[in-house]
Amino acid sequence: MMAKHFFVTIIIFLESPVGVGFSYSNTSSDYQHTGDKNTAKDAYAFLVNWLERFPQYETRDFYITGESYAGHYVPQLAYTIFLNNKNANQTLINLKGIAGWEWLDR
Ligand SMILES: *[C@@H]1O[C@H](CO)[C@@H](O)[C@H](O)[C@H]1NC(C)=O
Ligand SMILES: *[C@@H]1O[C@H](CO)[C@@H](O)[C@H](O)[C@H]1NC(C)=O
């Protein structure tokens, strides 16, 4: 009898920045401090909290993609993940790759 292996891919849709789609804040001042830097910070905080809630996925390979202005958000979030892993001297998020280059030159 052969063992069967199942590989489940988890896809998280995160709308950025705050105020877009299903992403919101109950703190009105959050809407005055949007911008690429805070968007990366918010997305990073979301991911860290998500992994705390679902630690079984902590070691999974992680990829980021996005469309439109995510051509900015994707590499900025990747860089934030890279810096935090480096500063902690450990892999907090197991980033393996990114894609989504629209809007990179705008
Ligand atoms: C924000 O406010 C709404 C409406 O009062 C509430 O349902 C929701 O739980 C609040 N969200 C957070 C994160 O506090
Ligand atoms: C990470 O390693 C560097 C170099 O060894 C060290 O200076 C730093 O304190 C370490 N940071 C943490 C959070 O352990």
Task: Give descriptors for this structure.
106 residues; mainly alpha; two-stranded parallel sheet; 2 helices; 7% strand; binds 2-acetamido-2-deoxy-beta-D-glucopyranose; serine-type carboxypeptidase activity; Carboxypeptidase; Peptidase_S10; protease; signal
SSE inventory with pairings:
Layout: H1 36-53, E1 62-64, H2 70-88, E2 95-98
Parallel strand pairs: 1-2
This protein binds 2-acetamido-2-deoxy-beta-D-glucopyranose (NAG) (2 copies).
Could you explain how this protein is built, in words?
By secondary structure, the chain is mainly alpha-helical. The chain has a domain at 33-101. 35% of the residues lie in helices and 7% in strands. The chain has helices at residues 36-53, 70-88, and strands at residues 62-64, 95-98. The protein has a two-stranded parallel ribbon. The chain starts with 35 loop residues before the first helix and ends in an 8-residue tail after the last strand. One 2-acetamido-2-deoxy-beta-D-glucopyranose binds next to loops.
Structure summary:
The protein is mainly α. It has helices at residues 36-53, 70-88, and strands at residues 62-64, 95-98. Helix 1 packs across helix 2 (70-88).
| Helical run tally | 2
Q: What string, H for helix and E for strand, traces the elements in order?
A: HEHE
Main sheet makeup:
2 strands, parallel
> Which structural class best describes the helix and strand composition?
mainly alpha
Give unreliable regions as ranges: none
- Side-by-side strand order of the widest sheet: 1-2
The count of DSSP E runs of length 2 or more, i.e. the number of strands, is 2
Tell me what portion of residues adopts beta-strand conformation. Answer: 5-15%
Radius of gyration using CA atoms only? 16 Å
The residue fraction in helices comes out at: 25-40%
Name the hetero compounds present: 2-acetamido-2-deoxy-beta-D-glucopyranose
* C-alpha end-to-end distance: 56 Å
On the 0 to 100 scale, the average pLDDT is: 89
> Given the C-alpha coordinates, what overall shape results?
globular
